[in-house]
Specification:
Length: about 775
């Protein structure tokens, strides 16, 4: 079949916009592992000599006898823009950005792969005192640079938008004022140039603005549909036709090539399809029609066969696929990609060389099982792999907790488990996890004394230390000490009694019945189910009282307009308790104000009033007891614990490591926690603390953090319970299904409790 011309992409890369370019506010389609396609006949849009579109693209297995060995090349330019890099021949082209140093000049940069030489040509804007901001840019095959530039007056009061063209030597060929078509309110998502020098500017929702090769305005093409459009790339056929690769309507199964008719200013009907990917480009090597990639792997695709062939998996080459910015084929068979991996402080270009597996470096393979992975978890694995010559981690995502639990209990090959959302108590009792105590005792890097008091105890189940998180936050219940007394926690019976004696007040505000049911079952399952004996107690008077308690909560809180804030409701006696998240040193202060300095953390109700605080951990990993690579698994855990804190870091660096972006967490390392505490206390000496003001006028003035407030937070840790998800719990589903008849007055509590008892008893008998 005649191949698509290997022009690659013409940018579509904007400043601060990474590998995918949104043309409307939409969700990216999920990576398509199975190569599914719409089975309807989609006809043909290419000329006849370009082959016939397949209606059923499928994924074929990769060649396991080959691997792609990475060569990392660091471009020594801190201002390099990896988002919009383009490989043209032997040179990597990009524009360096100002970053925080606004007095630095933009440069048109070229990095030659052969001699590893970087050349930068300053852009001469003919400065006239105005402020220039590059919105987006691209390069054509002749290395001319095309830019859209926002221009502001010195006081930012006046705005204009220009289209610029520079030749490879930095000479300005032309610039055109395009403000009339693209005013300040116009959102631009990308810029592309075809082989004739015609310009395509992609809007977020308006459509595609067209300009001729001399920068003259030609018109606009409306997308003409109400569905979302997500551009995956652009390419040009050898017949000179220009195409966009896009998702339409958020379709998760396929992308489509749509011809853009520049002269007639319209989109030709979409018919040629291919599997969904994060990005698509022409294969300049001619082996495939398209190169595709997602965060998992890179693929080659042929329209004639409808097959997507896996070329390589990013992790196998120690690359975080979430951070890949572009992909291109070199004439010698290697592949080029640009990577911007902030988690591992790695901004580089990578050349991947096809190598026989037996000739590549050999390492022991470890499987890291998780529920919902993502970029950060992959970054941890990739960071470990790059620095370890003996072991290699592959992250394996499971579709559900049930799938993960079944795999672990069936003894599938798994070495490490991401404990996020996992019910470690149940799995630990089934012997799934290795006890990390001996590994910690023999560690040359860490000891028990290095961690915040209580964090190891929280992850110790029946004497087994299951995991060690690198950071954590807490969720608890705060109440008035004068109401709950001096007891450390709140028992389930105590909560029911308080609710019964305060019929005019809600126990909690802003929480649904389903959410309250989840909390109660998470903390009180053992009072209702004895798994060891196989006994259930859902027909007890205690559970009937729980049903009456739950009936007071609403089905939904969406759209509620509150005239009175939570602090106002508590102080008016309309709400008894506050659910509080603790992740910063001053978080307890607010509740001291709400409860007039009588605030006490009692936690969610439990059978004995202990352990009612939830601990949300970050980067806690368990070692599977049946693993043959326990030493390597422990090395990984140590590498994670070392990642954010090292001896010699100053206090501000430590603070930034844990609080530079959400979700904010307390460090588990005692020295890191102390460094953050010292930093905040020192900063507070000269700080204005701020005020929190609610919609009804209630306000609270923050103050310098005190040790009493910090200790109130730390005191929750030893008794905290690691969070696990119960959303897909069969027992929870049974309760919600059957209790609805009681909540809506269709059945009495005795009948409902009896039905729940029978159904849960059957489930327990089948799953003991």
């Amino acid at each position: 079949m005649k191949k698509v011309k290997g022009r690659g992409f013409y940018g579509l890369c904007c400043l601060m916009i990474s590998a995918s370019v949104l043309l409307t506010a939409c969700k990216a389609g999920a990576p398509d592992e199975g190569g599914r396609a719409d089975r309807r006949d989609r006809g043909e849009i290419f000329s006849d000599d370009m082959g016939t579109a397949s209606t059923s693209p499928v994924l074929t297995a990769g060649k396991t006898e080959w691997v792609y060995v990475p060569e990392r090349i660091e471009i020594r330019d801190e201002r390099a823009d990896y988002d919009a890099m383009r490989l043209i021949g032997d040179e990597v082209c990009y524009i360096s950005m100002n970053g925080e140093q606004e007095d630095n000049a933009h440069e048109i940069c070229r990095y030659t792969l052969t001699d590893r030489k970087l050349t930068g040509i300053p852009i001469d804007w003919k400065d006239d005192g105005q402020v220039r901001e590059i919105s987006c840019y691209t390069f054509d095959d002749e290395q001319n640079a095309w830019l859209i530039v926002n221009v502001y007056s010195a006081d930012y009061g006046r705005f204009r938008r220009f289209l610029y063209k520079f030749d490879p030597e930095g000479n300005n060929i032309f610039f055109r004022d395009i403000t009339e078509q693209l005013a300040r309110g116009a959102a631009i998502s990308g810029l592309s140039v075809d082989g004739q020098g015609r310009i395509y500017i992609f809007g977020s929702d308006e459509g595609i603005w067209l300009y001729t090769d001399d920068g003259s305005y030609h018109g606009i093409i409306s997308y003409g549909i109400s569905e979302d459009v997500l551009i995956r790339g652009t390419l040009e056929g050898e017949d000179g036709r220009y195409y966009i690769c896009s998702n339409i309507g958020g379709n998760e199964d396929y992308c489509a090539l749509t011809e853009v008719d520049f002269d007639k200013k319209h989109l030709v009907e979409t018919r040629k399809v291919f599997p969904v990917a994060d990005w698509a480009c022409a294969d300049s090597s001619g082996q495939y029609d398209l190169l595709l990639y997602d965060h998992v792997a890179a693929y080659g695709y042929d329209f004639s066969t409808g097959k997507k062939e896996e070329l390589f998996v990013w992790q196998d080459s120690d690359i975080n696929g979430y951070d890949v910015k572009c992909l291109a084929a070199l004439e010698d068979g290697r592949y080029f990609c640009a990577v911007e991996d902030w988690e591992n402080d790695d901004r580089s270009i990578v050349l991947l060389t096809k190598t026989r597996a037996e000739d590549a470096p050999q390492r022991l393979e470890m499987i890291l099982a998780n529920l919902d992975g993502g970029s950060e978890l992959t970054a941890l694995a990739v960071g470990f792999n790059r620095n370890n010559s003996q072991y290699h981690i592959t992250v394996k995502n499971y579709g559900s907790l049930t799938d993960l639990y079944n795999a672990l209990l069936a003894g599938e090959t798994v070495d490490i488990v991401d404990l996020s959302g996992v019910n470690i108590k149940n799995l630990c009792r089934k012997g799934v996890f290795e006890d990390l105590t001996s590994w910690l005792e023999e560690s040359e890097t860490f000891g028990r004394e290095d961690f915040v008091d209580g964090i190891l105890e929280a992850y110790t189940i029946d004497g087994t230390l299951v995991g060690i998180p690198d950071s954590f936050r807490l969720r608890t219940v705060v109440g008035d000490r004068s109401m709950v007394g001096n007891d450390a926690g709140l028992s389930l019976e105590g909560m029911l009694e308080l609710a019964g004696s305060n019929p005019g007040a809600m126990p909690f505000d802003g929480i649904t019945r389903d959410e309250m049911t989840q909390y109660l079952m998470m903390f009180n399952e053992e009072a209702l189910i004895d798994w060891e004996r196989g006994e259930c107690h859902f027909d007890s008077e205690l559970f009937k009282a729980v049903l009456a308690f739950l009936k007071r909560f609403p089905d939904s809180v969406d759209g509620e307009q509150e005239d009175v804030s939570l602090p106002g409701k508590i102080q008016n006696g309309d709400v008894l308790f506050a659910i509080a998240d603790m992740k910063g040193l001053k978080d307890f202060q607010l509740y001291g104000g709400i409860f007039d300095e009588r605030a006490t953390a009692v936690g969610f109700p439990t059978p004995d009033g202990c352990g009612g605080t939830l601990l949300f951990a970050d980067n806690a990993f368990g070692i599977v007891s049946g693993s043959e690579n326990k030493s390597g698994a422990w090395d990984f855990i140590e590498s994670v614990l070392r990642r954010k804190y090292a001896e010699g870091m100053d206090q501000e660096q430590v603070y930034a490591a844990f609080y530079w972006q959400p979700p904010w967490q307390y460090p588990s390392m005692k020295k890191a926690f102390s460094a953050i505490t010292d930093y905040v206390m020192e900063r507070d000496k000269d700080s204005k603390f701020g005020t929190r003001i609610y919609s009804d006028g209630w306000s609270f003035d923050f103050h310098a953090v005190t040790w009493e407030e910090i200790n109130a937070i730390l005191d929750m840790v030893p008794d905290a319970t690691p969070w696990y998800t119960v959303e897909n719990s069969e027992i929870l589903n049974i309760i919600n299904e059957e209790a609805a008849a009681y909540y809506y007055g269709q059945k009495g509590p005795d009948d409902v409790a009896g039905i729940i008892q029978n159904r849960v008893q059957v489930y327990v008998n089948e799953n003991r």
